[in-house]
Amino acid sequence: MRAAAFIRFCSSSDFQLAAVRSEGSFVSKVPNPDPQQLTLPDHNGYNKTMKFAYLIEPPFNHRMPDGTVTGTDVELAKFVIDELNLGEFEPIETEFAELLQGVASGKWRMTTGLFATDERKQTASFSIPIWALPDGLLVSIGNPKNLSGYQSIAAQKDCTLAVIRDQFQHRSAVEFGVPENRLHIFETYSEAANAVLTGKIDAYVSVGRAHTGYIDLNNEQQLEVVTVPASEKQPAFGSFAFSKQDHVLIDGVNGVLRSYYGSPSHREMMYSFGFSDAEIDLVVDSYE
Q1: CB 128: neighbour CB atoms within 10 A?
Q2: Nearest to 232 by CA among 158, 163, 283, 178
Q3: Residue 64's domain is classified under what CATH number?
Q4: 53 and 144: one domain?
Q5: 246-269: per-residue pLDDT in tens?
Q6: CA dihedral in degrees (234, 190, 110, 175; nearest 10)?
Q7: Which of 59, 85, 112, 256 could staple 73 via S-S, CB 3.0–4.6 A?
């Protein structure tokens, strides 16, 4: 059943979503719809397309050889947008530092998954989690520095670490004592990964699943992933980001996600990008 058939929307002032799960089904109890609430006419063309900002970071988002954009975040966003009848899906590739600025200014309406930190919540609003994953280190095959996590990097005074500008892992590295003079900031995933591949940098920290996705997609035999242990840092939740004014859209997206999570089709989609049942259940269990 399409979400548009059972999720109704009213004005943002009195929108209420009372959802319950019953034997795997999703039931919503909301007032009659105001069709204009989800389209939000705007000079950026919200009525025509749903602009979704993403990064090249497999398995969350990447381009196929034919140019098609896919990945867990992309496929989940496409599903939600289709269920809510929000128009044509328009993926827009950008850099990490532009994601929240763009959604706040109306350049796009929704972004790939991000960690919903208190600082970021000052700029944007977030959906319920779409994945929960540990950090990981991308290192040369054999792990020549014998790295095990942030603390092992901080302890080796000659160890250099790549981070993406403004990503959560940059802050984590500083908090674990990695000095700024050993941190090398990059704008894109591919630039940071290439720095490790060419031996310019010892390790690159990001979400561990992004590293395994990169290795699998590129059949890269010279790199491996070291997962940051939960004893050092717990897995973190990532969520879609939206404008702080887009309340009704966020409620609609959350309703679709709740009805979809844990279903056979959801699991099959996540399996196809390398996610395990244990990783999927971290999200499913987070709202039940």
Answers
A1: 18
A2: 178
A3: 3.40.190.10
A4: no
A5: 999 999 999 999 999 999 999 999
A6: 30
A7: 112
How many structural domains are present in the chain?
Answer: 2
- List pLDDT tens digits, range 189-205: 999 999 999 999 999 99
147 and 36 within one domain: no
**Amino acid letter, residue 285:** D
Regarding whether 189 and 156 lie in a shared domain, the answer is: yes
Is the CB of residue 182 less than 8 Å from the CB of residue 206? no
Print the domain residue range for 113: 3-132+236-287
Question: Please, what is the average pLDDT of the chain?
Answer: 85
pLDDT at 43 over 70: no
Average pLDDT over residues 275-288: 85
Structure tokens at 252: 């609609």
Q: How far apart are CA 193 and CA 201, in angstroms?
A: 9
How large is the average pLDDT for residues 108-129?
Answer: 95
**Beta carbons of 106 and 124 less than 8 angstroms apart:** no
Among positive and negative, which fits the CA dihedral 272, 68, 217, 171?
Answer: negative
| Structure tokens, 16 | 């209420």
Residues 41 and 99 in one domain: yes
